[in-house]
């Protein structure tokens, strides 16, 4: 039985709510569209115009347009070329499956759009097929309709992905990167256009197309967001901050800060905490939720989240996979109106990003992952979000729980023995130190690691994660008892562990001979955040007080 605190989030199911055929004639040249759902419009033939807000778009044969939900659209046909269109209303619904009541549904990219999107004409023919067979005569035709509908959605999503990738323009990117790295210096549009190799006027147009801002607006955002980072840090005066971000004095800096944010620097310092925070690393989301703040965006390899007693289940988190393109991530953060980004620099580096590239969106606070332990992670995140008192109270309560746990296991044999934590991965063997499951065993409970691991803990403290070993070295790290965690491969198989368990090196261990091996589940013992560590402490007490 898996008692892990981690819950999965789910994408919704797409359904075709309705499909209509609209034809403009001389007696009915105008059609109005107002749907609570996203609408996909395809022009089968003819010409006309689409009116949305203050914009007018020309319609022509084969055109495909994705219209955001709740848009007020007016379609006007051309009398010389009568307009025939199909409209497909796309709805989403939760998956009906056996899962926790609080399991969160992830936002739909198609349904969450706020801007009109244009697509290639190949989709128009597919919508025509869906309309022609909208009343299927048998289940085979119904299934074909479902496949065709999802092929349409796949085409839309793939084109969205391709658009982000195609938007990369190396010459413009070089000039933007220069601004991001030199914003504290004197920067002119002329100088930036020279870097990009285009004229000044054309540069401003291209810049806004790429970033959504004019060069001056972008520069101002970089400076003000860096100033916010320094204000959050609290160690610099206004004059020092002004000079560091490119303003001549604190008075001019304060004016520009207020122009962009609507408040003075001192008011900003008093007003925090932030409400719309993004985190680039799943464990930091758990820290925020413990502090009572649900992150607006989580950028991570996983869409799992902490779900346990004492932590409110998330309601509106948007998950973005860390493999998404940088432009896709930046666009999502802007759409979410993020006020603060919390990230681990190692994970930014792994994705080819940096605080400089994200600073135009919001201030960014970098919190090192491997260099700090989970308590320091919590303290830094609490300090950045003005929740220090909550964090310190939680830590004080947890330290009392640790003391009680140490007292609870005093009658167990484990307190007089040595404990090895072996992790078997598909391609390596590791002996764990004081992170993950090792924190609770060696730090919270004070159990003794093997001598070689104790030496590494002495040298590196909280930074000592693990050491990779050869199978032949296993005996060098042997404890009188062993915890074993087998990580599955990408297909979910743990067959790679059989080679270890069938080896003479394994069979020769005293802990194996005396049946002092304890198999643990990865999901229950590996997460490294305060919520999970507290749960691991309770599991550890149950484990050691139950042994003979």
UniProtKB/TrEMBL annotation:
Top-rank taxon, per record: Bacteria
Pfam short name (any one): HTH_18
Keyword Metal-binding recorded: no
SMART domains found in the cross-reference section: HTH_ARAC (SM00342)
Keyword DNA-binding: yes
All residue ranges annotated as the Fe/B12 periplasmic-binding domain in the record: 276-548
Database matches in PROSITE patterns: FE_B12_PBP, HTH_ARAC_FAMILY_1, HTH_ARAC_FAMILY_2
Limits of the HTH araC/xylS-type domain: 173-271
Annotated keywords: Coiled coil, DNA-binding, Transcription, Transcription regulation
CDD domains cross-referenced by the UniProt entry: TroA-like
Molecular function GO labels: DNA-binding transcription factor activity; sequence-specific DNA binding
Coiled-coil spans in chain: 381-411
Record-linked InterPro entries: ABC_transptr_periplasmic_BD, Homeodomain-like_sf, HTH_AraC, HTH_AraC-typ_CS, Tscrpt_reg_AraC-type_HTH
UniProt protein name: Substrate-binding family protein
Organism of this sequence: Paenibacillus pabuli
